[in-house]
Structure formats: C-alpha cells, structure tokens
Design goal:
Elements: E1 8-11, H1 19-32, E2 36-39, H2 53-66, E3 69-71, E4 80-83, E5 95-99, H3 107-119, E6 129-135, H4 145-160, E7 164-170, E8 181-187, E9 213-222, H5 227-241, E10 246-254, E11 262-269, E12 274-280, H6 290-310, H7 318-330, E13 334-336, H8 352-365, H9 386-398, E14 403-405, E15 410-412
Parallel strand pairs: 1-2, 5-6, 9-10
Antiparallel strand pairs: 2-4, 3-4, 6-8, 7-8, 9-11, 11-12, 13-15, 14-15
Helix pairs in contact: 1-2, 1-3, 1-9, 2-3, 4-7, 5-6, 7-9
Length: 418
C-alpha cells in the first residue's frame, strides 16, 4: 500500500478562526488534490466551535466528488482530515444538486466551498455545469442571494470572465419559520489545458471618477406594511450621504414575517466600480414604530456605504475582498486593485531582536522593481478585514507557489491548469 502524502496542518483558530477558513482550505484542497488537516475547527466562535451542518454538507459533497478519504466529518468535530484523490476534471456529473441537512444552513456558504472545484471541472466536450443548492438564501453571518447576484457574480464576470446564469428559485430565511430555499446556477468551467485569467484588470491606482457615485441600487425585503416607509427613508438617507446619486429599487419584496427585514445597497461609480453594503435586522423590534425601524436600517446601510467610500475606500468592498482571494490565488498572472491599507507596515514590536530580523527579511524580500516588497505568509497578513487576511494565509499555505507583495495588494497567482 502506497504511503500517504504528508498532511498540511492548519490551525483552525488562526485569524478569523471560523467557517471561512474551513471552506477555503477544503475548496483549495479539492482543486489541487492536496491532503489537509484542520485542527481547532472554528475555535474562535463564541457559540461553540466545531463543524456545523453546512460545513459537513459542502465537504461531504467535495469528498464524494474527489473520492477523498475523510475523518472527522461530523457536526461538532474539532479536527478534520481530508485527502482528495481525484482532480476536478474527473467529475462526470453536469447536473448537480446539493441539499443541506439543516434548514438553517446557508446555500451561499455551501456555494463558496464547492464553486472553486466546479470552476475547474471542465470536460472534453466543454459542457456547462448546472448547480442547484438547497439551503437558506438570507441567513445571518452569510452573504445573501442579492449580494451574490448584484456584487460577487458581476465582478467575477467582468474581471475574470466567469459567466454564471443564476436564479433564486425559492427564498428561505434563518429568521422566523425555517424552510429550505433553492439557488440555481449554470456556468462554463475553465476549459481543459486552460487557466483562469483576468480579462479586465483593476487599476492599481485610483482614477478620477472612481469614487463619484452615479447610482445606488437598493434591494428591500421587509414586511408588507413596511415597504413604502422603507423606500421613502432609503431615498432620504441616500440623498443625505450621496446627493448626486440616482436611487434605483431593483428588489422590493414582502418578506413574509414581521421579524424578517433586510436591505442591500449597491453603489456604482462613474467608472464602473461597485460596492455593496447590507443589513439583516437583528435588533429588538418590540414597541417600535415601522418608521423608526426603517430609519435604523437606512441609517446603518448608508453609513456603512459612506464609510466604505471614505475610511476604508478601495476598488472593491470589504466583504468582496475576502471572497476574491481564492480567484486571485488560482488565476494565472497578477491581480491588484487600489486600496487604502487598514494596517501600517511598521508596527511596534516588543522584542528588538524581532525588529532586526524582520528588517533583514524585508531587505531580502525586496524585488528588482524596488516598489514591490514580497510578503511573508506564515500568518494572516496584509490589509483588510480579519477574513481577508486569513483567506490570504490559507491560500498561501495550500498553494505555496502563490506570491503576495506590498501588504497583500498584489497577488501573483498559481495559474492552476488541468
């Protein structure tokens, strides 16, 4: 019997220490047939760590598709071993249905785990893949279907040429009575022998008009009695924060329950950039007037959007940054986009010896271009949210040929091909 390839061991408490680390590690392991062990699974979650039902659903599907040996794949497990054996191109099924066992499991988070693998599952006939996922479409601590439809997928199409038809077949929430929703996608995987490439690079420096907001698309999902009030206050608050922007209501839908209230605002600039910020209402609504709640939601969404434009401005929004890392890492060539770094490079260090060692390492990592400094990837690094810096670390661990420069602002991808 052939000996096992050594496992890459990832500490699941590193960085954001939650489900994103697990999903990304398993996704990249499936694409590259790399054996991975994750310890301390979701150790940083206050409600208890270990695998949740949605993780088990996604990883079980990946394990079956890749003929992987798996241990620890049960709800609550703190350690997970995955040894994929079959590359994406061995996948024969072109019509895939994945059903979450738990009604509260997010269909969007399951998609995050399986989509990279499916993206490289091209066959000899270049057949498209149809994917249907049963789960929640509007869940706490998860992207919504609206964000997928209006922000992530349009960005992947524009920048990487990933065209995905999609449909919300049935909506489902984690608030109120639980049920299973259904999302459907149809897309063309990367052809055999080809690589994922940028088809339209971002500008590395901010251009005139990048932050000039021309239009804001608004999606409203609230109780019927609140729809008109929500529309009115969104117009008011957007006018106060973005006086030049046109307001366009793309979704105005009755949510089906008094506790279900969700709003997404997607700002679009004169140069074609987009940023999305949303709010799934999670506060007590007792004894509050409809107008009061509507103002709370509108204020929260527009404030987040304004902060994205001013304090944390970048060519993509904070939530999209971590979701793009996997595509940056798998693609061929360099990806970069302008941003304001949220962390300074020169931090105070308690040990002078550490300072000397890091300065020496910085000098060694300078490239011939002088403006580029190779990042050290042994721990979460770079600018952005905890999710983003953790995603970079995971991608660098599973794909050691990926290189990052200038505090995570430049990625030289692995150029995965089959």
């Amino acid at each position: 019997m052939a000996p096992h390839e050594p496992l890459l061991v990832l500490d699941g408490s590193t960085g954001e220490g939650g489900g994103q680390l697990v999903r990304l590690a398993c996704a990249l392991a499936a694409v590259t047939s790399s054996p991975v062990r994750i310890t301390n699974v979701r150790a940083n979650r206050s409600r208890g760590g270990g695998l949740k039902s949605q993780h088990v659903t996604a990883i079980a599907w990946l394990a079956k598709a890749t003929q992987a040996e798996v241990t620890g794949l049960v709800v609550g497990s703190q350690t997970l071993d995955v040894r994929p054996k079959s590359p994406p191109t061995t996948l024969e099924n072109r019509n895939i249905v994945i059903k979450a066992e738990s009604r509260g499991a997010s269909a969007l988070l399951i998609l995050q785990a399986v989509f990279p693998y499916l993206l490289f599952a091209g066959n000899e006939n270049s057949d498209p893949i149809e994917l249907e996922i049963h789960g929640s479409t509007n869940a706490s601590f998860s992207p919504s279907y609206e964000y997928l439809d209006q922000v992530l997928l349009p960005t992947l199409e524009e920048r990487f040429g990933i065209l995905a038809e999609r449909q919300l077949k049935k909506r489902a929430w984690t608030i109120g009575p639980l049920s299973q929703g259904i999302i459907w996608l149809k897309f063309q995987p990367v052809s055999r022998g080809q690589v994922l490439k940028l088809v339209k690079p971002w500008n590395s420096e901010r251009q005139p008009g990048d932050l000039e907001i021309e239009r804001i698309d608004v999606s409203i999902l609230v109780p019927n009695a609140m729809l008109e009030a929500m529309q009115n206050v969104m117009v008011q608050y957007i006018a106060a924060e973005f006086p030049e922007a046109e307001v366009n209501f793309v979704v105005s839908e009755e949510s089906g329950h008094d506790a279900r209230m969700y709003v997404l605002a997607v700002a679009k600039s004169r140069t074609g950039l987009r940023w999305g910020r949303d709010f799934l209402y999670d506060r007590s609504a007792k004894k509050k007037q409809v107008e009061t709640i509507a103002k709370e939601i509108a204020k929260t969404v527009t404030k987040k959007l304004r902060e994205q434009m001013t304090i944390n401005h970048a060519a993509v929004d904070e939530h999209l940054q971590d979701q793009l890392v996997v595509f940056q890492a798998l693609a061929e060539g360099r990806t970069t986009y302008w941003s304001r770094e949220t962390e300074t490079r020169d931090k105070a260090r308690s040990d002078p010896a550490d300072t000397i060692r890091e300065v020496i390492a910085d000098l060694e990592n300078l490239t011939e271009h002088n403006r580029e400094r190779k990042d050290r990837t042994h721990k979460p690094f770079g600018f952005g949210s905890t999710h983003t810096i953790t995603a970079r670390w995971v991608a660098s661990e599973v794909l050691p040929t990926v290189k990052w420069y200038n505090n995570g602002t430049i990625c030289e991808g692995a150029g995965i091909s089959f």
